[in-house]
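Collaborator request, handled under Task 6.
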Amino acid sequence: MREGPDLAPGARTLLEVDRLVEGCTACPRLVEFREKVSTERRAAFRDQTYWGRGVPSFGDGQAGVVVVGLAPAAHGSNRTGRMFTGDRSGQVLVAAMHRTGFASQPTAVSRDDGLVLTGARIVAPVHCVPPDNKPTPDERRRCSPYLGRELELLAPTVRVAVVLGGFGWVALLATLRDQGWSVPRPRPRFGHGAKVRIGHPDGRELTVLGCFHVSPHNTSTGRLTPQMVDDVLLEARRLAGLEPVTTETRM
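Structure tokens returned to the collaborator:
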């Protein structure tokens, strides 16, 4: 039986990719864990029904910028069904995206809270919550056709990728190499503020920007400040050729 990742290269739209992600059962360890979390739940969310499936990407279907995360959080995206929604990491990222003109509001609490992204799409190398927030290399590779197909469908508009953390950096560059992009060897090193321009044989260019992940581990210790996130997102906005941030830009 062919699984979602096997079908992803044939998806004609981003919505088709999303539906494949939602129904995916390709990684038994991840399926078991996402369902376990959804059944046991956290005390604060005991009365809520968890999403407990693959979490699709979210945002503008004609994005100039993709924001590449890691994987859904156990009681954030795995609960709400939307990337960077319902947890502390999402609070930091969406607030920054609002300040920099990508998000219609500074909060992300549920799938139906009215949040709209313009000019940006949040994607991930792995679409199911992993134990200890650590997907295996095989799980990342199994999930990669989703990211690959999304990048192909976004090809007419996407010009910049903002990568949150080293895992996403390695995963994105591997996916780009699989798609024929001229990823430098040795692979560029991840770091906050890292920048690498990558070309495609068809003449396209993608600028990849590194940003420390917006996890509490980084934000609560001061390793990553709101201004640092804003600076990377504003640079991405400029490189993608999007209009400067104004009150109207923030909707």
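The cover message to the collaborator said: "The radius of gyration is 17 Å. The chain has one domain: 4-239. Please let us know whether this matches your experimental observations."
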